[in-house]
């Protein structure tokens, strides 16, 4: 699976492999991903957003050994973390400022010394008897790795991470960088087809401690003090707090009818939990943190559908909750 992710990233337009270890050649097998820069052969459009060039993703799993518990992301309290990956599990750690480190130390919660999510599960069901598809959806600022279990007809394992959200204002207490908020959404467990009407599935955070759960987190852009969005906090250090987020409202497609002419629904507005830090254990929404960028509600599609406008121009891609049947799906655009 890691080799397949390596192959997808190596041939992508906006991302490339910075380093890797597969085949149990190290204690932790991994693929480290960075944006393509000016000297690379693929389009270097990420250079238009210098702040985005620092991003790093580490997709990892057991090699000859395993990750340690201190490398995992916070689960329900600041001292309670997600368990280490099992034999059939992949995890991912996202760091917005990863390139400021000279090299990666995989088995750390903060591999580069700067803020990072820690490792969260992105697939708990890898089995050699099953047939898997690996594919990606990419822009210059967001990377989505999609894993499909074709044997069990399950899609929406994987993750979506990067400059994911647009804050509600451009004020310094709300914004992270370039009117964006960094974060990640990890599907350790397959995202079922009821995700639009269930806050416990899909693109929302879970307070459980297991790898096979959904973890949706965003970095508090000015965290560090006693309250949300405190002005005197740390914007890039390892002390920067994570906020567990969830969808602002249910979207029942039979009643909302908010589809556009191109087939895309509204963006996904997100709240964060009532307590400041990630993994407070509370599931009560508090404050509106922003709307997801380049990620849209769309009408039912199977995975890997290309969305085009009336002139035949590709305007987006669908990541569906079933590889072949029309069920709930998420649309990705470049806007």
Summarize the structure.
The protein is mainly beta and 335 residues long.
Describe the structure.
By secondary structure, this protein is mainly beta. It has one domain (2-258, 267-299). Helices cover 4% and strands 38% of the residues. The chain contains 2 helices and 18 strands. The protein has helices at 2-10, 253-256, and strands at residues 15-21, 28-35, 56-62, 74-77, 80-81, 90-95, 120-123, 132-138, 142-149, 154-166, 181-187, 214-219, 242-247, 264-273, 285-301, 306-308, 314-320, 327-332. The strands form 3 sheets. The chain has a 6-stranded antiparallel β-barrel with strand order 10-11-12-13-14-15. The radius of gyration is 18 Å and the shape is globular.
Protein topology:
Layout: H1 2-10, E1 15-21, E2 28-35, E3 56-62, E4 74-77, E5 80-81, E6 90-95, E7 120-123, E8 132-138, E9 142-149, E10 154-166, E11 181-187, E12 214-219, E13 242-247, H2 253-256, E14 264-273, E15 285-301, E16 306-308, E17 314-320, E18 327-332
Antiparallel strand pairs: 1-2, 2-3, 3-6, 4-5, 6-7, 8-9, 9-10, 10-11, 10-15, 11-12, 12-13, 13-14, 14-15, 15-18, 16-17, 17-18
């Amino acid at each position: 699976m890691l080799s397949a992710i390596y192959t997808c990233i190596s041939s992508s337009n906006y991302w490339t492999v910075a380093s890797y270890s597969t085949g149990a050649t190290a204690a932790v097998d991994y693929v480290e991903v960075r944006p393509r820069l000016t000297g690379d052969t693929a389009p270097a459009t990420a250079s238009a957003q210098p702040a985005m060039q620092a991003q790093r993703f580490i997709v990892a799993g057991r090699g000859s050994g395993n990750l340690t518990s201190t490398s995992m992301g916070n689960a329900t309290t600041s001292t309670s973390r997600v368990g280490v990956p099992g034999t059939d599990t992949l995890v991912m750690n996202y760091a917005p400022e990863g390139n400021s480190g000279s090299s990666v130390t995989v088995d750390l919660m903060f591999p580069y010394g700067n803020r990072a999510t820690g490792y969260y599960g992105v697939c708990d069901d890898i089995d050699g008897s099953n047939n898997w598809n690996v594919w990606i959806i990419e822009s210059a600022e967001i990377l989505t790795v999609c894993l499909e279990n074709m044997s069990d007809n399950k899609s929406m394992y994987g993750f979506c991470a990067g400059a994911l959200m647009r804050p509600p204002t451009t004020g310094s207490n709300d914004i992270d960088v370039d009117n964006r908020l960094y974060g990640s959404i990890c599907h350790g467990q397959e995202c079922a087809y009821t995700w639009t009407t269930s806050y416990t599935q899909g693109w929302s955070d879970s307070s459980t401690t297991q790898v096979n759960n959904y973890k949706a987190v965003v970095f508090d852009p000015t965290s560090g003090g006693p309250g949300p969005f405190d002005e005197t906090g740390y914007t890039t250090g390892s002390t920067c707090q994570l906020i567990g987020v969830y969808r602002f409202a249910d979207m029942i497609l039979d009643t909302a009818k908010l589809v556009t002419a191109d087939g895309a629904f509204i963006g996904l507005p997100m709240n964060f939990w009532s307590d400041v830090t990630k993994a407070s254990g509370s599931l009560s929404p508090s404050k509106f943190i922003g709307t997801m960028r380049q990620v849209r509600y769309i009408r039912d599609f199977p995975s890997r559908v290309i969305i085009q406008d009336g002139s035949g121009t590709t305007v987006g891609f669908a990541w569906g909750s079933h590889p072949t049947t029309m069920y709930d799906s998420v649309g990705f655009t470049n806007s």
